[in-house]
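Troubleshooting entry. Yesterday's outputs looked truncated, so today I'm pasting the complete records for two proteins to confirm everything comes through intact. If either block looks cut off, that's the bug. Protein one:
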Amino acid sequence: MNRLIRGAIVAAVALAIVAGKASERSTTPGQPKEPTKADAERMIRAAEGGLAPVYAPLAEEIVERLTLADREGVGIDVGSGPGTLILELCRRTKLHWIDADINPYFFPYFLGQAEAAGLGGRVSAIRADACALPFRDHFADVIVSRGSFPFWPDLQQGIAETLRVLKPGGLAYIGRGLPERMPLETARRLRAERGEGPKYDPDETEQQLRAVMKTLGLEDYRIHRPRPNNPEGVNYGLWLQFEKPRR
């Protein structure tokens, strides 16, 4: 991507942020606690440690399923935290990626890692609530999120915001857990070291996602359940994939 195009994208990001802030939406009552530096440091340690094997195969899976290798424009990772997934996506796509996270204490680490990897000109960061994204309508080409939606104040509102911000024909990949291509032994070891995280029923979560999609009037979507019947009984999680309807 040449400097002129990159500069135009960065300018568009700034305009989107300004436009989004002018029309921020309110979230549900009972806001979560204010994020802290300690929260960010804890997640950074996890991303560098036990979760490190997740990001590269997950990025490969996202690029393949959404056909992103030659796509240009803007991608947003909602709840990206330390931005490890973004860096892997940068290595595999031509998109400019934005770390949209509610905790700004992640951003110095994320931007430093991007610079060290030679990707500093291809990323941005902005403090963002998933249920009130600070971007204008029809802005992003791709929105992804790993492990964030269980903490959104309102799942339906978060997915509705994803739809609002996506361009017509824009793509989304939202979920929790592990990539299907992760070897079973690696997944078993990761779960044994870190535990399953917050407990949840994948069947119940799938039904919640289907109910949200029905309410939003979206019929063309897929829910991926990686290796649901593996012999080790490892929970690989689940992923929602959809495209915003074209005009």
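Protein two, checking that the full record survives here as well:
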Amino acid sequence: MMSNRLKILVLAGTSEARTVIESLVVDGRFDITASLAGATPNPASMPVPTLTGGFGGAEGLAAWCRDHAIDLIVDVTHPFARHISRNARLAAVDTGVRLLRFERPPWRPMAGDNWRSFGNWQDMSDAIPAGSRVFLAGGTQSIEIFTKRDDITLLARALNVEGRVGPPNVTFINALPATRVEAERALFAEAGITLLCCKNSGGDASFAKITAARQLGLPVWLLARHTDAADGQSLLNQPADAEIHDSVESIVAAACSHAADHGAG
């Protein structure tokens, strides 16, 4: 039995996190624990012990890492999960634990796309022309802002909105993003959507709506990602040896390299 396995905490909740875990769990050098924020009801089980819920901020995360002798934190959370990523950076500084961060590349427009970026949901909502029929895929935090517009028709899809009742001009869909372009295109066409508003999440998991909007010639308004500076966080707070990776293959290779350096096996 392995006696010197590398103890990893994977901050999960994305499809890439599952792929990272599935790639590493077959390697006997790793002892992996996954953590989920708990925002997704009934998430699919993972092949490693899994925690659900927060740690109590950066201090709680640091304390948990110390108590469990964590050797490596791997942050594979959503690109808009700024708080947990910030907490991971601060916990890594506090504990001296190495941090690997997966940064999913943002979506880029193609020739002919009618895209516009916004720094916050309020500015996006304020800019919508009266009479627009809007499909909003921004999560629950965006809904309150958009539902204040009584001069638009709003179709809002998010998790945890089942049974929610809004103004007469608002319809809620309690669901994850559709994975089939045909389904998204049919939904947009049936509802007469004239504008798509969403986060620039990147990746493939929720790209079907972007493709559907592209095929229908719809404008797409995107919430831009916050930088450390925009989030009020100095890059000086980031550990000197933190590594940023833009692919699953790269972050898995980095974890394996760290295991080799650690002498795990």
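Both blocks look complete. Sanity check on protein two: The first strand starts at residue 6 and ends at 11.
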